[in-house]
């Protein structure tokens, strides 16, 4: 009978330990910047039991809560809007508003999701209604500088053709997280709120994306459109994507998206004019979708009902951790501007200290803590075609402390302990057998 020698046993134990090493490596989950829970308004989707305070609106499932907030003479509708999620396994999403500074913050770290439409890569569109009313909706977000609904012709050839939309923002996204940061603009054949989406149009203007081309709608058309970034005028190249029959069931509309060829702008003060995007839409629709749009004049009669701003994201094929959605952004300013009007110089100082914990019950959790201190002072200058110069000075001090539970590593460590126990038991049994023999 063959007897297992101690040298053989040592080799066996060594091989088991070597094979178990990859189980403990793996990628650690990113440390996501968290939004301040002491903000004036806090919207949250969470699977964890909470005791909401007076400033917090909590939903324990998708699509998530919404509310209207005001900042000075302006108002916005905040909405987490995870329209394609059926459920969330763990984690949370938070959307906050600070009524002292006007800052809006979004942070997401969710996992083990189930989708309403699994074939769709988009999980949702958390963000804000900037101005207008969604077709069929009841909440009208008013801005005196852009009193939607207005026709495309009003915005291209009329008295509202000189309007600019300006954003000051910063993004945080893992490199392999599919997402876009975009305006989503809805147009219908009659003005909202009584309008229907059917036979209308959806215009998206992407300011930043990690997925610059989606083949199912790419027309191959590339256009250069001027965009002002941190005071500098840039002729940005956009791919035009069109889907003639976009929608669901018997309701459809024509979808058009302007996607920056180089990925766009992850941070900064970015100002665009709606006019050139609308002009290209008017030109392209009859060329790409002649069965729906017989002439440019027909497109010009569409009513622009609402301008929303947010981030489409989420994909079950995320490379490092399938089924996770991880993203964060801060919006410091969202404005409609008229060139030639004197704009006041504003200085905003924001100091935020946040400690947030996202945990899931696992065996032997491992924690990673990240603390960062960033001090940034920037002067942003935009000069329009008139002699008036818009100056915005932003001073920002941000301290963020985040603690997250690294679930995969915790599970891997548990697996290693199980393997080691098995090895010890086998070794003891082999020694006992040897003694008997």
From TrEMBL:
<dbReference type="GO" id="GO:0004553">
    <property type="term" value="F:hydrolase activity, hydrolyzing O-glycosyl compounds"/>
</dbReference>
<keyword id="KW-0472">Membrane</keyword>
<keyword id="KW-0812">Transmembrane</keyword>
<feature type="transmembrane region" description="Helical">
    <location>
        <begin position="414"/>
        <end position="433"/>
    </location>
</feature>
<dbReference type="InterPro" id="IPR013320">
    <property type="entry name" value="ConA-like_dom_sf"/>
</dbReference>
<keyword id="KW-1133">Transmembrane helix</keyword>
<protein>
    <recommendedName>
        <fullName>Glycoside hydrolase family 12</fullName>
    </recommendedName>
</protein>
<dbReference type="InterPro" id="IPR013319">
    <property type="entry name" value="GH11/12"/>
</dbReference>
């Amino acid at each position: 009978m063959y007897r297992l020698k101690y040298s053989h046993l040592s080799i066996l134990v060594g091989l088991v330990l070597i094979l178990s090493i990859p189980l403990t490596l793996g990628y650690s989950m990113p440390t996501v910047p968290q939004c301040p829970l002491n903000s004036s308004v806090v919207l949250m989707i969470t699977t964890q039991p909470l005791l909401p305070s007076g400033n917090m609106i909590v939903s324990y499932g998708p699509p998530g809560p919404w509310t209207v907030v005001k900042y000075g003479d302006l108002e916005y509708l905040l909405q987490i809007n995870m329209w394609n999620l059926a459920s969330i396994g763990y984690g949370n999403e938070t959307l906050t508003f600070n009524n002292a500074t006007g800052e809006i913050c979004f942070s997401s770290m969710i996992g083990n999701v189930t989708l309403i439409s699994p074939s769709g890569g988009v999980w949702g569109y958390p963000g804000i209604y900037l101005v207008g009313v969604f077709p069929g909706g009841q909440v009208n977000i008013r801005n005196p500088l852009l009193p939607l609904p207005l026709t495309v012709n009003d915005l291209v050839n009329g008295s509202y053709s000189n309007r600019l939309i300006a954003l000051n923002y910063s993004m945080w996204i893992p490199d392999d997280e599919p997402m876009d940061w975009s305006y989503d603009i809805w147009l219908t054949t009659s003005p909202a709120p009584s309008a229907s989406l059917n036979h209308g149009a959806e215009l998206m203007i992407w300011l930043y994306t990690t997925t610059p081309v989606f083949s199912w709608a790419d027309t191959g058309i590339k256009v250069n459109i001027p965009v002002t970034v941190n005071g500098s005028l840039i002729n940005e190249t956009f791919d035009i994507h069109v889907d003639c029959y976009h929608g669901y069931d018997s309701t459809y509309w024509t979808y058009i998206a302007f996607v920056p060829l180089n990925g766009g702008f992850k941070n900064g003060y970015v100002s665009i004019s709606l006019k050139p995007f609308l002009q290209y839409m008017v030109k392209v629709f009859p060329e790409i979708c002649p069965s729906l749009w017989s002439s440019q004049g027909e497109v010009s009669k569409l009513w622009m009902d609402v301008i929303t701003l947010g981030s489409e994201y989420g994909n079950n094929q995320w490379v490092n951790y399938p089924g996770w959605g991880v993203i964060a952004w801060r919006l410091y300013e969202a404005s409609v501007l008229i060139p030639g009007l004197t704009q006041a110089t504003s200085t905003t100082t924001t100091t935020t200290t946040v400690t947030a914990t996202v945990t899931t019950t696992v065996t032997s959790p491992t924690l990673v803590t990240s603390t960062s201190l960033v001090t940034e002072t920037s002067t942003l200058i935009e000069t329009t075609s008139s002699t008036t110069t818009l100056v915005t000075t932003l001073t920002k001090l941000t301290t963020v402390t985040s603690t997250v539970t690294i679930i995969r590593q915790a599970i891997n460590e548990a697996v290693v302990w199980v393997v080691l126990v098995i090895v010890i038991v086998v070794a003891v049994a082999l020694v006992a057998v040897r003694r008997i023999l």
